[in-house]
Design goal:
The chain contains 14 helices and 13 strands. The protein has 436 residues and is α/β, with parallel strands linked by helices. The longest helix has 17 residues, at 220-236. It has a domain at 94-120 and 223-394: 3-Layer(aba) Sandwich (Rossmann fold), CATH 3.40.50. Bound molecules: ligand F0G. Ligand F0G is lined by residues 121, 123, 146-150, 217, 248-255, 310-311, 356, 358-359, 386-387.
Length: 436
């Protein structure tokens, strides 16, 4: 069924072999060569301040597509925007980093909190577009491989749309909050004996053979939605581009979407210069950083192992798009250790903001580049927090309660008798600025 509400026609083609496809035929990857697909829509009629005013004017909407921090940017999205499945999502805050900014050595660091989306991660921005598309094409079922957040998001949006959903999750490396969400929202949850890369291989093959609609970030509709993180962040900076945007990098869907969004924003005259992207990987799962160090002459694959389970990925699917984003923005890919990730997380959490471990990698990456003198203290830096503090309660409690020796920012719980004397002793131990 063709879309009836789109603003201008959308085209879909393969970035590898050039095949041109019908945008609503249900392909998430090229059926000819397996390459990544690219969506295009004619540039919007408005640009610059007029376009910015159109976007801002929708922000006060109480319901419908305009109330969504994704669909209010629809002129810049190559997606059918008729009967959308929306909670709404997006419209997340850009916060001053507080203690976390001081920890990173950038007093002006600001944090875009994508963990405050309806299912607690940035995935909702892509999923509203992906599920809207799935319903438009009449998909019999939708599926994804996931380290957890995509599964949680897919499960919720599929439930709202009334489309059956299957999610493939690594059996032993999924954070508790994410597994709980997938189960709660009613997705058929497959705990795969293997890592994320094995899950993705499986679901790609299954989608191809069984005609299920694939909603991983290789699906170009997902990336259209994720572009709006950048549009909204730029809007919150009054369209004055920051010097740097830092984000965690795993399967590279978001790195790809950020590069695309910056290209779109520049072409629409919304910004007059492009920020540098800082993509941050965990040392134990850093194939993209390895390629970056060699000037992207070759693609690497690794067996991943990091505490930040969301980015525990060894063979990123959006590699080519990720490379383009880093090249286009004069970007950098760096790595941080698990200990640095956990300390950055404790700093973000102690600022009252909170995030999951993978998100904190972005802040740890900023600190690393400050230490290396690449980011200077006066730089305008925005870090993107991709997931909510409650996504991974086990890693969180382990850090504060169990790890030996006591980590620098641990907030050890204190067991007491139910006496005012014990309570008072705890009160006396508090400094003016909190427990730490
Ligand atoms: N941060 C969080 C919280 C994530 O869940 C992910 C990816 C990333 C960062 C990395 O983004 O893959 O686009 O480079 N999570 C996927 C999932 C893989 O299945 O939920 P990316």
């Amino acid at each position: 069924m063709p879309p009836t509400h789109s603003v201008s026609p959308i085209t879909l083609s393969c970035s590898r072999c050039g095949s041109v496809l019908a945008p609503h035929a249900g392909h998430a990857e090229c059926p000819t060569c397996g390459g990544l697909l690219e969506l295009r829509r004619a540039p919007p009629a408005l640009h610059g301040p007029a376009l910015a005013r159109l976007f801002a004017g929708r922000r006060g909407a109480l319901d419908g597509a305009d109330a969504s921090g994704v669909w209010r940017f629809r002129e810049l999205l190559a997606a059918a925007d008729g009967d959308v499945i929306t909670f709404p999502e997006g419209n997340t805050p850009l916060l001053d980093g507080g203690i976390a900014a001081r920890w990173a050595g950038i007093p002006g660091l600001r944090l875009k909190h994508e963990g405050l989306n309806p299912t607690g991660s940035f995935k909702d921005r892509g999923m509203t577009v992906g599920i809207t598309q799935a319903r438009l094409i009449g998909a019999r079922a939708v599926a994804c491989a996931s380290t957890g957040n995509t599964a949680a998001s897919l499960a919720a949006y599929a439930a709202r749309a009334g489309v059956p959903a299957l999610v493939c999750i690594p059996a032993h490396r999924v954070a508790l909050g994410k597994l709980a969400q997938a189960l709660a929202y009613g997705a058929r949850t497959l705990l795969v004996r293997g890592d994320f890369d094995a899950c993705l291989r499986l679901v790609r093959e299954a989608a191809h053979r069984l005609g299920v609609y694939l909603l991983n970030s290789v699906n170009p509709y997902r990336l259209e939605g994720q572009k709006t993180i950048v549009f909204e962040l730029l809007e919150q900076c009054a369209w004055q581009a920051p010097d740097w945007i830092a984000l965690p990098a795993g399967n590279l869907g978001n790195t790809a979407a950020f590069g695309m969004a910056l290209r779109d924003a520049r072409e629409a005259n919304l910004i007059d210069r492009v920020p540098r992207l800082l993509a941050v990987q965990a040392e134990g799962a850093a194939p993209f950083a390895e390629s970056f160090r060699e000037g992207f002459v070759s693609r690497h694959r690794v067996t991943p192992n990091t505490v930040a389970t969301a980015i525990n990925i060894g063979d990123p699917a959006s590699y080519d798009r990720g490379v383009r984003s880093i090249r286009d923005t004069n970007g950098i890919v760096t790595t941080v250790s698990d200990a640095e990730i956990l300390e950055a997380k404790a700093a973000v959490d102690a600022a009252g903001i909170g995030c999951e471990p993978a998100s904190a990698a972005a802040v740890a990456g900023v600190k690393r580049l400050v230490r290396e003198g690449i980011i200077t203290a006066g730089s305008r830096v925005v870090g993107v927090l991709t997931g909510h503090v409650l996504k991974d309660p086990e890693a969180l409690v382990r850090y504060h309660r169990d790890i030996q020796p006591t980590p620098a920012l641990a907030n050890r719980p204190i067991e007491i008798d139910a006496t005012v004397k014990d309570f008072e002793r705890a009160l006396d131990g508090l400094g003016t600025g909190g427990a730490r």
